[in-house]
Design a protein that fits this description.
Elements: H1 2-33, H2 42-70, H3 73-97, H4 107-132, H5 139-161, H6 182-199, H7 205-224, H8 233-268, H9 279-296, E1 300-307, H10 310-317, H11 319-335, E2 342-347, E3 350-355, H12 360-375, E4 385-392, H13 399-417, H14 421-432
Antiparallel strand pairs: 1-3, 1-4, 2-3
Helix pairs in contact: 1-7, 2-3, 2-8, 3-4, 3-5, 4-6, 6-7, 7-8, 10-11, 10-14
Length: 433
């Protein structure tokens, strides 16, 4: 027990120690870059900031879509934060493109610092709100409010930036030539510590990449703290890390949205209890198979299965056991049919199995195999199922007639063979107990 707890603590500490080691190496790399001469290139810096801003805009759009579907407020606040940060970066990039040697600009690094502060604060705000109010009841209203807040904040921040002192490095040659960059670094560190707890509950691609992006933003601030002059090597390194962090966050958001969309698509065609295809999906498959048979003349079979005595099981053992009985039958259908077959829940206690390119004799063998597997299942309560078979030969019959033929045969078999014996034995056994 103690060994397993020790192994768990080591597995948790390993990525943290690796990240801290990486930050230390990055700090010394940025310190070494202070002596590396680099000719300032305002146009390159402008393009870097424009790229970062565009990535922030796309990330904001993706996260707002995610919020609309999940009502996860952390997506809303982070989306608004990246949108605001991207707006500030894009606006400040225009200053780089207007750079004149006789009138050197110093506001762009200051606005970059302000965008870092804003993003770091919204990281912490997102975690605070997510902790107390994790889900939204009015997502569209909150998205509109967030966008209006971003517009107002952008105007106020732009006005405030022009009043900030223009000096970027008030302490050249010190251990931290730009100590103001440590303020957003500290806020990012607080967000990282808090976000680590969220990862224990939400281990999605979105959360993992946001966590990694926060580490990279912390590293960017440490690199920027080594900047001694406008557009020097440590500042370029900080901007490169920022661009990379935004790209990483965007990639994770896109992957997670793709996963969510796939889940929605699966739920739209699946039965929530058994995981088999639902009635809507069954009709689509039958439509496709009838069209195929009409083209190539190869028949297909439909098996309808009715779980005998489900009401008796529910009354005797409870509805949870009855639901489990449905899942047991669904599991048998899932593992004892071909990859091209489609097993579906037809409704209530009835199931359907579509067998492409199958004749009457082959369908009868499949039905007998399913009966044998059900009979061999010794789990209590015992199960049995009545099965009806219908074959589509390509004569233009309607799907409703095909299902009605299988349903009629199912109830004929139920009445002729007395398939309620297992349910009767279950009821008698429960009464003796």
């Amino acid at each position: 027990m103690a060994e397993s707890a020790l192994a768990t603590s080591r597995s948790r500490l390993t990525p943290i120690l690796a990240s801290v080691s990486g930050l230390v190496l990055l700090f010394f790399l940025a310190m070494w870059l202070r002596v590396v001469p680099l000719e300032p290139d305002p146009v390159l810096q402008g393009y870097l900031q424009v790229t970062t801003g565009l990535l922030a805009f796309v990330f904001a759009a993706v996260t707002l879509v995610r919020f609309q579907g999940t009502q996860d407020r952390i997506s809303l606040i982070l989306g608004a934060g990246f949108l605001l940060s991207g707006t500030i970066l894009t606006a400040s990039s225009l200053l780089f493109f207007q750079f004149q040697q006789e009138t050197p600009i110093r506001w762009a690094p200051v606005s970059w610092w302000v965008s870092r502060i804003v993003l770091a604060l919204l990281f912490v705000a997102a975690l605070v709100v997510e902790h107390f109010l994790p889900r939204s009841r009015h997502p569209r209203r909150e998205i509109a409010s967030a966008l209006l807040t971003v517009l107002g904040s952008t105007y106020l921040i732009t006005a405030a930036v022009r009043r900030l002192p223009p000096e970027v490095s008030p302490h050249p040659g010190a251990v931290f030539p730009s100590p103001q960059q440590l303020l957003p670094a500290g806020i990012f560190l607080v967000a990282l510590i808090w976000y680590r707890r969220r990862l224990e509950l939400e281990d999605s691609a979105f959360d993992r990449t946001i966590y990694a992006a926060a580490w990279m933003n912390l590293g960017a601030q440490l690199a920027a703290s080594q900047s001694q002059r406008l557009l020097d090597s440590p500042f370029v390194l900080a901007q490169a890390l920022t661009v990379t962090s935004y790209a990483v966050a965007l990639g994770g958001a896109l992957l997670d949205n793709a996963r969510l969309f796939e889940q929605v698509r699966h739920l739209a065609v699946s039965d929530p209890l058994t995981g088999l295809a639902n009635y809507r999906r069954l009709l689509d498959v039958l439509e496709a198979e009838t069209e195929r048979t009409n083209r190539n003349g190869r028949p297909f079979a439909v098996l309808l299965l009715d779980l005998d005595g489900l009401k008796t099981i529910n009354d005797t053992y409870g509805h949870l056991v009855g639901s489990h009985a449905l899942n047991r039958l669904a599991h048998i259908l899932r593992i004892h049919c071909r990859a091209i077959d489609t097993a579906a829940r037809y409704g209530g206690d009835e199931f359907a199995l579509v067998l492409p390119e199958t004749l009457q004799e082959e369908a009868a063998r499949v039905a007998n195999r399913i009966r044998a597997v059900i009979a061999g299942d010794t789990e209590k309560p015992l199960l049995s199922a009545s099965i009806g078979i219908s074959i589509y030969n390509g004569h233009g019959e309607r799907i409703e007639k095909l299902l009605s033929a299988a349903d009629a045969q199912l109830y004929l078999e139920k009445s002729r063979r007395g398939k309620r014996q297992p349910a009767t034995r279950n009821r008698r056994r429960a009464q003796k107990v």
